[in-house]
Amino acid sequence: MGIFMILFTLLGGITLSAQSAINGTFSRKAGTIETTFLTFITGTMFLALIILFFGQGNLFAIFEVPIWQLSAVFLGVLFLLFNVFAVPKIGVIATSITVIIGQLVIGVVIDHFGWFNSLVIPLSMKRWFALLFMIIALYFIYKGNKRSIEEASANIIN
Amino acid sequence: MIRYIAYIFALLAGVALSFEGAIYGELGKTIGQLETSFYNFFVGAIILSLLWLFFGKGKISHVTKAPKWTLLGGSLGVVYLTAIVISVPFVGVGITMVAVIIGQLIMSMVIEHFGWLGSKKTRINKEKIFAVISMVIALILVN
Question: Does the predicted TM-score (pTM) go above 0.90?
């Protein structure tokens, strides 16, 4: 069961990169805001169906929760807008790696301080090394991306 | 120049995602996880309709002309989300995150190498492979 679940989750990651690529393609013709808008509209429709059949929570409790919990939607919007903006400029893999680094760095900081009622996980030596490897990854993706773009445009000229 | 801005925006997108995840974790405890995603997409659509009305310069009418597969972005986001919601209780957040990110990175590289899904064709090179390996090491160290 465990292995099956891990494969299933890998599939989740695969769909995420496909989403970035597809949205990047669509935005070249339709624009960044328009693509993000469409993604939210279709996402809403699919989720409405899923909730109707499988929803076990209580949607109407949103009127009772603290407002700061609802404000996360602005972050969700920013995330997708920035993502759709970046893909046509630097490509899918560079966008993915950079987003993940931003996510992990802040994730480590949130854990360290225990913000938003999260579990407090102090910044250990291991995690400092993790941050170092992320910087190395960012450096390599920038270099590698620059090289393959240069090679691609050289091929067009030849 | 525009390339640097794109990298900075991508970093900020990740930052936003992390805060979003932490906050929605709390919201999910009250209203449920699927309901939280629905809230995000529904209210997000409202915010974007306003943004589009006031600042949209592109062509939304492209929806009717574009190949249908380019409209699948939103539904794939939902597949991703559902995969996570289902697998976390079985294998835990740590392994789920590592698996998702590895799947995402390897597939991104393959998609671009072949220029699938309309992406610009850029070949895999050793720098990119080093970058992915460094990310995998970082992920293992974080967990």
Answer: no
